[in-house]
Amino acid sequence: MTDQLSPRRRTGVPRAEDKLHDVAVVGGGPVGLLMALLLTRRGLDVAVLEQRTSRSIHSRAIGIHPPALAVLDDAGVGPALLAAGVRIRRGTARSRGREVASLSFEAVPGRHPYVLAVPQVITEQLLEEQLEALRPGALQRGVHVHGADDDGATVTLSCRVGAGPGSGTRPGAGPERAADRDAEHPAGPDTSTVRARLVVAADGAYSALRRQRGVAVRTRTYPDAYLMGDFADTTPDGSTAVLFLEAGGIVESFPLPGGTRRWVARMPGVVSHPTAAGLASLIARRTGIGPEPESCTMLSAFSVSSRMPRRLVAGRLALIGDAAHQISPIGGQGMNLGWLDAAALAPIMAAALRGEPTAAALRQFEADRHRAAATATWQAHLNMALGRPLPPAMLAARNHVFGALTHIPGAHDAVANRFTMH
Per residue in 9-43, pLDDT tens? Predict the structure, then answer.
């Protein structure tokens, strides 16, 4: 990342004769969009290539932690997100109807002493609107990137135009299967190329570019599975996040805008055919609170695994987000971790495009982001362990220790800082 570049602008779908971009960002999810925003605000010509033809309506990641909120402020979307979200200033843990522990986020460092809960579809919309305002046409949907040719000065991306849900994958196909088909059938009738000086792969945990570049990945599968759903909020908990530490497994409860609440229940295995009524019944059995099944607006069953690439920079390609570190979603750190990747990488890329030497900065970037991912993985592992089923006697003993710890002022602040990614 040392070549001198001059920013250029483009719009429209990819074509082989298009001008050279400063940076191509592969993946138009929340991490890729923020990366593009940060680079665009530095005066760079950025193209974002996204396989999906439209934003997913499903709300997946919801929690935005204080360090990421500061980055989003710098990108110009902080105020809009704050207006759209719920500020979680307190979390509590309960067991068998009694409070075990309580955490206040009021004392966390920085200008945002809370976790902001925003449905991911809204977060993506606000990021996309901000990018469109700064560089119209930068986001190109329905473009699947399946290969990259790095000649040492530029990168040529091989694309299929018109790929995405309903074209590049069939309903119900898992990401591994879709990736395998891409490798077997890398070209189609609607193919094109995009050229850029540098490339950012923000194309998810099964990153096609990461695999195409031969980056080795350490994978770990966990024995944990969860069932998640969004229901109308019938609790008195308001903006408080609640963990129900029960013998049958944890149930997590988080406020969302619009009088909605997210429920996440630890399961003995992945539920193949989840129903709102089934999840509501399980929540009621464990917590005594019964969400209304007919109010459910989202339902998802998932297992947990982690993927850690051995390197994050390969020639003129850099990995961020889930492409750089897939961790358990329990704890809500993954999207935030990707945003912090983008914040760390953007100034390095800008310096490289000015012709400045960046080798040492890239080595530090890799070391720092590997360290941050390891810390987040450890925290997610601890969160999952906290939620596993326990015999009643062991559960009571564990809860007593957990509660006592959060009543020690210094320990309370340390735990609160850890849960908010400080």
Answer: 333 444 544 689 999 999 999 999 999 999 999 99
pLDDT tens for each residue of 54-64: 987 776 899 99
* 269: three-class secondary structure by DSSP: coil
pLDDT tens sequence across 327-358 = 999 988 999 999 999 999 999 999 999 999 99
Does 283 score more than 70 pLDDT? yes
Nearest to 198 by CA among 138, 150, 136, 160: 150
For the cut 80, the answer to whether the pLDDT of residue 143 exceeds it is yes
Average pLDDT rounded to a whole number, residues 82-93: 96
The reply to whether 359 falls in a domain is yes
**What are residue 163's phi and psi, to 5 degrees?**
-75, 165
Q: Is residue 102 part of a domain?
A: yes
Query: Does 315 reside within a domain?
Result: yes
CA 6/CA 350 separation, integer angstroms: 11
Q: Report CA-CA distances (Å) from 171 to 54, 73, 270, 273, 416.
A: 15, 36, 19, 15, 40
CA nearest to 349, candidates 363, 362, 367, 335: 362
**Whole-structure pTM over 0.85, yes or no?**
yes
Measured over the CA atoms of residue 168, residue 340, residue 132 and residue 114, the dihedral's sign is positive
Cα gap 54→417, rounded to integer Å: 36
- The H-or-E segment that residue 225 falls in is strand 217-232
DSSP per residue over 323-387, as a string? Answer: GT-B--STTS-HHHHHHHHHHHHHHHHHHHHBT---HHHHHHHHHHHHHHHHHHHHHHHHHHHHT
- Biggest CA-to-CA distance, the chain: 69
Residue among 327, 304, 322, 302 at smallest CA distance from 312: 322
Task: Mark whether 393 and 346 lie in a shared domain.
Answer: no
Nearest to residue 350, comparing CAs of 318, 389, 309? 318
CA distance 303 to 267: 9
Give 108-128 as a DSSP string: SSSS--SEEE--HHHHHHHHH
Question: Using an 8 Å Cβ cutoff, are 315 and 150 in contact?
Answer: yes
In a domain, 11, yes or no: no
Q: In angstroms, what is the C-alpha Rg of the chain?
A: 22
Q: Which two tokens stand for residue 175?
A: 């990401």
- HSE value, Cβ hemisphere, 13 Å, CA-based, for 312: 30
Q: Closest Cα partner for 412 from 105, 97, 71?
A: 105
Contact 252, 243 (CB under 8 A): yes
Instruction: Mark whether 207 and 323 lie in a shared domain.
Output: yes
CATH number reported for the structural domain that contains residue 253 in this entry = 3.30.9.30
